[in-house]
Amino acid sequence: MKFISIKEQADALLMSEILTLISSIHEKNGFAYSLPNKKKINRLHDLSRRRSVTSSNKIEGIEVTKKREEELLIDKADAKTKEDYELLGYNDALNYVMDNYQYLPLDEKLIKDLHYLMYKSFSPDFGGKYKVEQNYINSYDERGNFINTVFTPPNPRESAQLMGNLVWQFNNAIADPLSNKLVLIFIFILDFLCIHPFTDGNGRVSRLLTTFLLLKYGYSLDKYYSLSYLILEHLDDYYKTLHLSSSGWHQNENNPFHFVHYHLLRLVEGYQNLEYIIKINDINANSDDLVYKVIDDHRIPTSKEYIEEILYKYSRTSIEKSLKDLLVKNRIELASKGRIAKYIVKR
């Protein structure tokens, strides 16, 4: 059976490339603690939750339209399709994490509960149960055709023992005040993905656990800027680093560096983006000038949706009015028309 060694692997990763990123994260995480006192910050918080729900599902090929997303997550419409149920199930599980992380311990019950919450509305008999048949991690082409098996998880008979060992090791390691919590968190997630304890939904549960552990141990980015969204934005690199870090896992020869390094980079990127959002909303200027600045700073053709996500202190109506005013004043121009129009600064 696989021998899990979280602490040993974490200690081996305390090298300059990792420590430099961790130092940057700690510096920027302090900035995030001041955010609850900001006006209208709840809008940013709600956006991060919705982004996490849609992004984590989209990574697994579960998509709904933007209109349907708003109907389900904002207007609280009832589910009609399998995709609707999966989106709302993940939303329930994420809300459970966000609302209760400070009270919940990391244990197998939590992990199974998160899986159950994802499936309870359309497959309650399936949710919350470890796999009973062998599963595989496969790769597919753009048309959905099978290419090859990338990774074979452990035999289902080993899942419960491996998960119990993994949780026990993590809790012991993270209780050490000298441990590096970020490194431990991402090694835990890597081992969880390699064990692949559920028949389906392992990737989504891994992202729920990532959010839970980061919040529980003081890293508040996901409250205001979705880490799952950033993973979706860099999805090819995610799969590449997962493959590199899982290679040799069964033989206890894998190197978690690539997977850990990737996630630390995403955290740094997320904190940088969050800092920009907060600073631009703190600028004392009218909506036209701030909309113009967002388009100018973005440098590439910019959608109204992107501007709305940055300028959380303005309503959609205000941003639409500013875009019209800027077009009339010839300060910006349309880079593309249609359902998702994009704008650039007029040079």
Describe the structure using short key phrases.
347 residues, mainly alpha, Fic-like fold, Arc Repressor Mutant, subunit A, 2 domains, 3-stranded antiparallel β-sheet, 5 strands
Describe it:
The chain has 347 residues and is mainly α. The protein has 2 domains: 6-279, Fido-like domain (Fic-like fold, Orthogonal Bundle); 284-345, Winged helix-like DNA-binding domain superfamily/Winged helix DNA-binding domain (Arc Repressor Mutant, subunit A, Orthogonal Bundle). The protein is built from 16 helices and 5 strands. It has helices at 6-12, 16-32, 41-59, 66-73, 82-100, 108-119, 156-174, 181-195, 202-216, 221-224, 227-233, 235-246, 257-282, 287-298, 304-310, 316-328; strands at residues 137-140, 146-151, 302-303, 332-336, 342-345. The strands form 2 sheets. It has a 3-stranded antiparallel sheet with strand order 3-5-4. Strand 1 and strand 2 form a beta hairpin. The longest helix is centred in the C-terminal third of the chain and has 26 residues, at 257-282. The radius of gyration is 21 Å and the shape is globular. The protein starts with 5 loop residues before the first helix and ends with a strand. The relative contact order is 0.13.
